[in-house]
Design brief:
This protein has 189 residues and is of the alpha+beta class. The chain has two helices and eight strands; from the N terminus they run βββββββααβ. Helix content is 33%, strand content 16%. The strands form three sheets. It has a three-stranded antiparallel sheet with strand order 1-2-5, with no helix packed on it. The protein has a three-stranded antiparallel sheet with strand order 4-3-6, with no helix packed on it. A two-stranded antiparallel ribbon has the order 7-8.
């Protein structure tokens, strides 16, 4: 198996990473410092020229719900090798979940109002087109150009106002529910 030699910029450790991890973000097994595996044919990152202080101790792991602190962690199945040393495990850069605990009521209301106003404009345009068909002539006083103008002007306003109120109510209800269950988890890259 071919390997790529990388130097951790956090602790200076030389790592031989299997070439299947080219271009991926990994973490050093010694200090946990993230590094990018060099692509073949490129120079690996140079070692730091100044002495590197010892990294701080990592925080204790957070156990998932339902797990026991007395269970053994799973054994590693593969990983990079330190040059001239036995095989060790590396840690891939893991995904970080963020929890949305609160939504701004005014911001969600404004966004929802804008989205609904645009939808009202599309519906208004559709009504305006229909207002010039023979079907609309059966509506007294509201056919032709008068119905078209009212639909294009009033429907976006009505939809926008309704969307604003619905957005504000949604944000308030979400904020109350998030206090009970903790909010929505988001995965950010």
């Amino acid at each position: 198996m071919a390997t790529i030699t990388n130097t951790c910029t956090g602790c200076g450790r030389q790592l031989a990473v299997p070439d299947r991890y080219q271009g991926r973000d990994l973490k050093c097994p010694s200090c946990g410092h993230p590094f990018k595996v060099a692509l073949s044919g490129t120079e690996p990152e140079p070692a730091p020229t100044h002495p590197v202080a010892a990294p701080p101790e990592p925080p204790p792991p957070v156990l998932p719900l339902g797990s026991s602190p007395f269970e053994d962690p799973p054994l590693p199945s593969h990983g990079p090798e330190e040059v001239g040393a036995p095989q060790t495990e590396f840690v891939e850069a893991t995904a970080v979940f963020w929890r949305v605990k609160r939504i701004g009521v005014a911001s969600l209301a404004a966004l929802s109002g804008l989205i609904h106003a645009v939808m009202g404009l599309f519906v208004g345009l559709a009504v305006a087109v229909v207002s010039f068909t023979p079907l609309a002539e059966e509506i007294p006083f509201l056919h032709g150009p008068l119905l078209a103008v009212l639909a294009i002007v009033l429907l976006p306003l009505v939809y926008g106002a309704a969307g604003f109120v619905l957005g504000a109510v949604t944000a308030v209800v979400y904020n109350l529910a998030a206090q009970l269950v903790g909010g929505v988890r988001l995965l950010l890259e």
